[in-house]
Specification:
The protein is α+β, with helices and mostly antiparallel strands and 93 residues long. It contains 2 helices and 4 strands; from the N terminus they run ααββββ. The chain has one domain: Pantoate--beta-alanine Ligase, Chain: A,domain 2 (2-Layer Sandwich), CATH 3.30.1300. 24% of the residues lie in helices and 33% in strands.
């Protein structure tokens, strides 16, 4: 897997998710969102996004996105995440 391409893919997905409101992300809570996208290198990458409570229910949401190319990296995907508070601010940034 081309690491730079994979990072570009996962960061693009997280950027799109960051544009959503807390309430929109909360609707996706505990749902696995999977899709295949073409990376900047022309290869296909699998994205998996999961949104969970970060700590206590009704609090912050952790949005995690993993990417792999379907090869051996499927067992060890590249993962990035962010945390959004209920007031819409990003935690730790």
């Amino acid at each position: 897997m081309d690491r730079k391409a994979a990072i570009a893919v996962v960061e693009a997905e997280l950027t799109a998710l960051r544009r959503k409101r807390y309430s929109e992300l909360r609707e996706l809570l505990h749902k696995e969102l999977n899709k295949t996208v073409t990376g900047p290198d022309g290869k296909q990458y699998q994205l998996e996004t999961v949104i969970v409570w970060d700590g206590k229910p009704e609090g912050d949401l952790r949005v995690m996105c993993s990417v792999d190319d379907g090869g051996i990296r499927a067992f060890f995907p590249l993962t990035r995440d962010f945390i959004i508070a209920s007031n819409g601010t990003f935690v730790g940034e």
